[in-house]
């Protein structure tokens, strides 16, 4: 059996997986639930979605129309699933959530699903949380939502099993400055606001310290920190992951990926969506899907963890798709520039031209996920997970 893109799907290594995805939705483009759901479905997962916002397009365009889903509507949608006995989910994947009140509803959903699954198969339900709060030193959300995420992290057995923050979000929830400067300690105080951006560089020691804080203080079993710039490593971003041991200590691995000279929207959603399938696959291969929280034995080294193997595959898929997206973006912009020069009105306002050019660049950089579905399903493994001592 093949799909229109010529991708043979007769063999799928990902075990049967049913997912409830709670994240944003856009009419145009591939971010939020649109991106995550497609990636999961490409890997053979069955996905149900609750949309936390409904926008015309993603915010990277700097203009959009739409609405945020009220917390009570999230509650009602889940109640509808409950009333129809449609709660046979293996995984909850949560992404962008617009308010602390909405996050509270999502946390209640996670607790209910975990409780129900404990009756049938203890420890088999899994919550993957992408704590979407900001990037490069800038918050996208309210301080109240940041406090809400910190509270959710400390929920113990009812909290998330895997979190996938970027570097800035890792700082916010751990209270550890990744640059090596003063950290805020365990009282959870807000980090001092300071610019990060492309010039802000972390140290691997402080990234590991932040991860260990979340393991020991908050009890988070698995963590993957994405898009971390490390001092002395030019031209690459580091992805640092860990699964805690039974004593709470970390088993950190690091994967280096090249920096691509383009701003993409939706890559966090892409990472999280692919991680659902690839982690299920890796845990099945390691025989840990039937263990509580899919936990690996303490003697498994960092680079051999199912989490490490899954992350390598996810990043290999993403690297291929984003490189092809860059090529397509350049071709689309070349066509745009040619048509613009041919039709340029000398009387047109400079501001209007600049705006149209920005919107054209943003549109051209929309991730080509569907056209390159083959790279999601059968990636050419191109990276390596190395244990971080």
From TrEMBL:
Sorted UniProt keywords: Kinase, Transferase
Listed name of the protein: Pyridoxal kinase
Domain of life: Eukaryota
Record flagged with keyword Transferase: yes
EC code: 2.7.1.35
Broad class of enzyme this protein falls into: transferase
């Amino acid at each position: 059996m093949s799909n229109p893109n010529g991708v043979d799907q007769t063999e799928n290594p990902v075990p049967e997986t049913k997912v409830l995805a709670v994240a944003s939705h856009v009419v145009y483009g591939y971010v939020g639930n649109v991106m995550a759901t497609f990636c999961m479905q490409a890997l053979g997962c069955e996905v149900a979605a609750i949309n936390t916002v409904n926008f015309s397009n993603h915010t990277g365009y700097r203009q959009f129309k739409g609405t945020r889903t009220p917390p009570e509507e999230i509650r009602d949608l889940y109640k509808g699933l409950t009333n129809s006995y449609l709660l046979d989910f293996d995984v909850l994947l949560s992404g962008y959530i617009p308010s602390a009140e909405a996050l509270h509803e999502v946390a209640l959903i996670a607790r209910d699903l975990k409780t129900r699954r404990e009756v049938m198969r203890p420890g088999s339900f899994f919550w993957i949380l992408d704590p979407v709060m900001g990037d490069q030193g800038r918050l996208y959300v309210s301080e109240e939502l940041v406090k809400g995420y910190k509270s959710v992290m400390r929920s113990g057995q009812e909290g998330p099993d895997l979190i996938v923050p970027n570097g800035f979000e890792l700082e916010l929830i751990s209270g550890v400055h990744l640059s090596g400067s003063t950290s805020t300690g365990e009282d959870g105080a807000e980090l001092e606001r300071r610019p990060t951006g492309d010039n802000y560089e972390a140290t691997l020691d402080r990234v590991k310290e932040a991860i260990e804080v979340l393991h020991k203080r908050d009890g988070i079993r698995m963590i993957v920190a994405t898009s971390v710039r490390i001092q002395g490593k030019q031209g690459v971003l580091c992805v640092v992951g860990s699964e805690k041991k039974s004593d709470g200590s970390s088993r950190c691995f690091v994967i280096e990926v090249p920096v691509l000279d383009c701003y993409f929207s939706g890559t966090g959603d892409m990472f999280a969506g692919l991680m659902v399938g690839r982690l299920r696959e890796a845990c099945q291969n390691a025989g840990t899907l039937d263990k509580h929280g899919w936990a690996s034995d303490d003697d498994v080294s960092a680079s051999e963890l199912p989490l490490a193997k899954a992350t390598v595959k996810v990043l290999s898929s993403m690297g291929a798709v984003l490189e092809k997206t860059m090529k397509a973006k350049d071709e689309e912009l070349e066509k745009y520039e040619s048509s613009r020069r041919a039709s340029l009105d000398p009387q047109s306002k400079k501001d209007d031209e600049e705006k149209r050019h920005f919107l054209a660049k943003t549109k051209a950089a929309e991730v080509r996920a569907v056209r390159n579905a083959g790279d999601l399903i059968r990636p050419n493994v191109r990276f390596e997970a190395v244990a971080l001592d």
